[in-house]
Amino acid sequence: DQQVKQNSPSLSVQEGRISILNCDYTNSMFDYFLWYKKYPAEGPTFLISISSIKDKNEDGRFTVFLNKSAKHLSLHIVPSQPGDSAVYFCAATYTGNQFYFGTGTSLTVIP
Amino acid sequence: EAGVVQSPRYKIIEKKQPVAFWCNPISGHNTLYWYLQNLGQGPELLIRYENEEAVDDSQLPKDRFSAERLKGVDSTLKIQPAELGDSAVYLCASSLRGRTGQETQYFGPGTRLLVL
């Protein structure tokens, strides 16, 4: 049973525009959410996280939004840059439990 | 600060042969994870260690997979014998519990296994 879902396998965005990556989850016990970025032949790299007590967390060009009632989170990248082209995974967990990952969204930023 | 180190980066073996992967977590990280990642999928947990204790190995296929974390630092993951379906990327991660009590995982580069 996939508890974390990324329904868009791929996304293409023009350089300088906003990239919005979406993630849905089913387990209401999740209280911590993370986004990872993965380049080919490398391991996932931690990007940004958000606790369930917040609805927004911002770090430079990256902002994560959490909508607990909809069990939905999104990652906004503004402005998008060609170096942002990678696969993005969302993950969710709750204290003392394992991490659950989505299947990833491949972002291509077109110069 | 050094990240999570894994070796080898690539491994090609014939089916029924044994294979072992090694992981050195980030210094000070007590929790260590082994994941399996197939193409087009997210990482799937195989085993989680708190120090030297395996606290979650429910998804580890114990008939052929084994793992150990001696002294609560380095860890090895072994497959014996390997099957064609074991071809995948094996990721190691370690985590640090923050001030809020929540953990952030940091991944190694992975070992890409090809079983022929």
Structural features, described:
- The complex is a heterodimer of chains A (111) and B (116).
- Chain A is mainly β and 111 residues long.
- Chain A contains no helices and eleven strands.
- Chain A has strands spanning 4-5, 10-14, 19-25, 32-38, 45-51, 56-59, 62-67, 72-77, 86-93, 100-101, 105-110.
- In chain A, the strands form two sheets. In chain A, strands 2, 4, 5, 9, 10 and 11 form a six-stranded mixed beta sheet that branches.
- The radius of gyration of chain A is 13 Å and the shape is globular.
- The N and C termini of chain A lie far apart (38 Å).
- The model of chain A has no long low-confidence stretch (mean pLDDT 95).
- By secondary structure, chain B is an all-beta fold.
- In chain B, strands 2, 4, 5, 6, 9, 10 and 11 form a seven-stranded mixed beta sheet that branches.
- Chain B is 0% helix and 52% strand.
- The mean pLDDT of chain B is 92.
- Chain B is built from no helices and eleven strands.
- Chain B starts with a strand and ends with a strand.
- Chains A and B meet through strand 4, strand 5 and strand 9 of A and strand 5 and strand 10 of B.
Strand content of chain A: over 45%
Radius of gyration of chain A: 13 Å
Distance between the terminal alpha carbons of chain A, to the nearest Å?
38 Å
Shape of chain A: globular
* Shape, principal axes of CA atoms of chain B: globular
The largest inter-chain interface, given as chain pair and residues per side, is:
A-B, 24 and 25 residues
Q: Would you count the extended β strands of chain B for me?
A: 11
Total DSSP helices of chain B: 0
Mean pLDDT of chain B: 92
Secondary-structure element order of chain A, N to C = EEEEEEEEEEE
Instruction: Kindly estimate the percentage of residues of chain B that lie in beta strands according to DSSP.
Output: over 45%
Q: Helical residue percent of chain B? A: under 10%
The total of helices of chain A stands at: 0
